[in-house]
Amino acid sequence: MRPPSGALWSLTLVCLACETGPAIYEHTGFAMGTVAQLKVVAYDASPAEEALVRAMAELARIERITTVYSDSSDVARLARDAGGDPRALPEDLDWILESALRVAERSGGAFDPTAGPLVRAWGFPEEPALPDSVDLAAALELVSWEGCSKTEEGWQLTVAGMELDLGGIAKGYAVDRAADALAAVTGNCLVNVGGDLAVRGSRPGRSGWHIGIQDPREPSRLFLKIQVSGNRAVATSGDYQRAFDVDGIRYHHILDPRRGWPAGELRSVTVVAPTCELADAWATAAFVLGPEEGLEALEAHPDLEGVLVEEDEKGDLVLHRTSGMVALEVGG
Questions:
Q1: Residue 42: which of 23, 14, 18, 21 has the closest Cα?
Q2: Contacts of 274 (CB under 8 A, 6+ apart)
Q3: Which one of 27, 91, 180, 306 has the largest count of C-beta atoms within 10 Å of its C-beta?
Q4: At what angle do helices 91-106 and 170-186 cross, to 10 degrees?
Q5: Would the pTM of this model clear 0.85, i.e. be above it?
Q6: Nearest Cα to 143, choosing from 127, 159, 129, 132?
């Protein structure tokens, strides 16, 4: 997560008004290195504006403690202490790490919060390039979720040189916290930060919120639409989000932390979960696991639904859905 440049923090309210009853108040800004779109249902502008300000503040707060782009963040401090004594962490980061390690264990390391050295070796996101084989091997030696542990004194990375990369879960957690802030108004809201999305309640006049899923080969086109309501979240990992080409070969940012190279079998994975934190992490894990193992891993969790998109030899997209995903899909 990059720190915001040219901060778009001034609040502009867009009221999608209804003739009677509540209206949707919307704000689009910049947070966690990407565009943030927030919608809250309210009966008048004042509580809506206050909630939108609080929600944007929550996104900024979580970014401050989880970013690797600031030497003063708790994640950066933990990396500097790697191989040394444990460090006490803020409650939010404590929660994020515990959740990340659970997903790491259950996915067999397909999701790994200690992939920082690997991401750095590939130069994502600023200067992506093919890494030197020696540098890549050295980075891979430092990636081990089992080397991130919690003691009575706090958290520690057990080997000097280890670094966290929480890009696959921290944004989802921040989206959850922003949604909680908006939900305090009427219980109905939507938060979308760079494709990580959480809803509470429903949109006025509908039984839920309609969410579009991008075509991984034509991201400007939606190829699937779902409806979610209540406390639900949606996150997508795709090979189109950050990538570069070398000699006609495409390399993307979703790295397999077990092997050190971009995962190659899928084009995108969308996961629906009770929290965006879980949707975010499992979208990454399932992408790395591939169509068969990824689908099996999602099916093993009754609270998770998803669609894994593969491209066949003819270039056609093949969708692998969990058993409950079809029930969420809507036409149009």
A1: 23
A2: 231, 232, 233, 303
A3: 306
A4: 120
A5: yes
A6: 159
DSSP for 83-142 reads: TS--B---HHHHHHHHHHHHHHHHTTTSS-TT-HHHHHHHTTTTS--PPPHHHHHHHHHT
Q: Which domains are assigned to the chain?
A: 76-157 (1.10.3980.10)
Cα distance between residue 259 and residue 80, in whole Å: 25
Nearest to 38 by CA among 22, 54, 62: 54
Residue with tokens 């923090």: 9
Pair 268, 254: CB distance under 8 Å: no
Give pLDDT, residue 6. 32
Please name the residues in contact with 36: beta carbons below 8 A apart, sequence gap of 6 or more: 28, 29, 30, 56, 59, 178, 191, 192, 193, 194
Cβ neighbours around 325 below 10 Å, total:
21
User: Residue 216 has which token pair?
Assistant: 């991984």
| Percent helix, strand and coil across the chain, each to the nearest 5 | 30, 25, 40
How does pLDDT run across 32-85, given as a tens digit for each residue? 989 999 999 999 999 999 999 999 999 999 999 999 989 999 999 999 999 999
Letter string b/e over residues 31-40, b meaning 16 or more CB atoms within 10 A of that residue's CB:
bbbbebebbb
Whole-Å CA distances, 232 to 226, 300, 330: 12, 18, 16
